[in-house]
């Protein structure tokens, strides 16, 4: 079960919420150790939003100060914070609200334009990624190929090879 979170703004296609869907404007902070964050990374890939929404993975072990960024390259796949050069996720929260007293959780969807946390509730973030960024993701056909790829990944390496060979002439698979 997830716990209540504080930031519940929505990115919308028309920008009526104050957060307009734009390529390059939003950043997703996740930990691979967090299942709630994990579902946001899955939807980001399935929707082909890797170029439109940047992503940083924190250290997979939570430090006494909460989720930390890896600055020395010691953890494969984890990087320094490219937006604020923060050392911990909690800095994003305190920048958004210096009086914040809740948990410094991931995932966090962050607006690079206003330096604000848009949302830190995974169930809401995946809805936004699914419906509001269609302009910036892949085509329906590319997405279907990717979904097939993910299914095959669960089934068999032989099938993966077949799918890749079959689609290689028509589609670009960016996994
Ligand atoms: N309601 C949140 C829950 C997220 C959550 O619980 N994240 C955990 C890791 S799985 C976290 O960051 N915890 C930090 C802490 O408790 O200090 C969501 O689904 O997005």
Query: According to CATH, what is the topology of the largest domain?
Result: Glutaredoxin
Q: What's the helix-strand series?
A: EHEHEEHHH
Summarize the biggest pleated sheet: 4 strands, mixed
The fourth-level CATH homologous superfamily of the largest domain is Glutaredoxin
Q: Under the CATH scheme, which architecture of the largest domain would be assigned?
A: 3-Layer(aba) Sandwich
How many individual helices?
5
Q: What ligands does this structure carry?
A: glutathione
Kindly give the count of domains: 2
Strand order of the largest sheet: 2-1-3-4
Derived structural class: alpha+beta
The CATH class of the largest domain is Alpha Beta
Catalogue the unreliable spans.
Answer: 167-175
Mean of pLDDT: 87
**Overall form:** globular
Beta fraction of the residues? 5-15%
Q: Helicity level, as a percent range?
A: 25-40%
How does this model look, in words?
The protein is an alpha+beta fold. It folds into two domains: 26-136, Glutaredoxin (3-Layer(aba) Sandwich); 138-175, no CATH class. 32% of the residues lie in helices and 10% in strands. The protein has five helices and four strands, in the order βαβαββααα. The protein has helices at 35-46, 90-96, 122-131, 140-155, 157-167, and strands at residues 26-30, 54-57, 108-111, 116-119. The chain has a four-stranded mixed β-sheet, sandwiched between helices. β3 and β4 (116-119) form a beta hairpin. α1 packs parallel to α3 and α4 runs antiparallel to α5 (157-167). The protein starts with 25 loop residues before the first strand and ends in an 8-residue tail after the last helix. It binds glutathione. Glutathione binds at residues 2-3, 5, 34, 36, 66, 103-107, 121-122.
